[in-house]
Amino acid sequence: MTTENNDALFPKGNKLPNDWFSGEAFLNPLIARDKNNEFSAGSVSFDAKARTNWHTHPKGQVLIVTEGHGYYQEKNNAAQIIKKGDVINIPENVEHWHGASENTNMTHIAITNYKDDLQVTWLQPVTDEEYKTAIQSTENN
Fold first, then answer.
1. Which one of 30, 46, 90, 141 is most buried, by most CB atoms within 10 A?
2. What Pfam families does the entry give (predicted)?
3. Fold exhibited by the domain 14-139
4. Over pLDDT 70: what percentage of the chain?
């Protein structure tokens, strides 16, 4: 008989500012931009109901979900459920948000490219109504 290791892949990290996130979200930096890498990577942990603001990336982003499940939504599109093992390739300059489900924490590795010195443009918060609509849209699919 084997037992599953339910320990987190990486430590939770430091709390992220509520200027860019609703709820409790944390970042554990993994790789910083340097002379060899035009990107950074970090493990981002979302407590249940936590989510990013709407935002864009000038050179795109890749998310690799390592724990739990949550949502990913591009502006003017239906939300999709994301879960452990999913890889989301976000095109450049696409307005989107991502975060945990109502009852489950979610962690993903975010690999974010730079364009010049810009990595992300933060926009308005995802409202509670937008979040509820996202949940309902995934329940109906």
1. 46
2. Cupin_2 (PF07883)
3. Jelly Rolls (2.60.120)
4. 94
